[in-house]
Amino acid sequence: MRLFKTRLKKLAADEGGATAIEYSLIAALVVVAILGGLSAVANSNNANYELIEEKIAV
Splitting the chain (58 residues) into consecutive groups of 10 residues, what average pLDDT does each group show? Predict the structure, then answer.
């Protein structure tokens, strides 16, 4: 029983998992920001191509 309590205290004091979760959340936010930026660029680019298409069709 003493060994179990010792291991349980070590497990409760270990912060390695929390750090990994924090880094994964930061990475997820970075990915979301990149995808949002790419989406904005794609929409702008699409509008430019449509404008060029209209000018060529005339």
Answer: 83 77 94 95 90 87
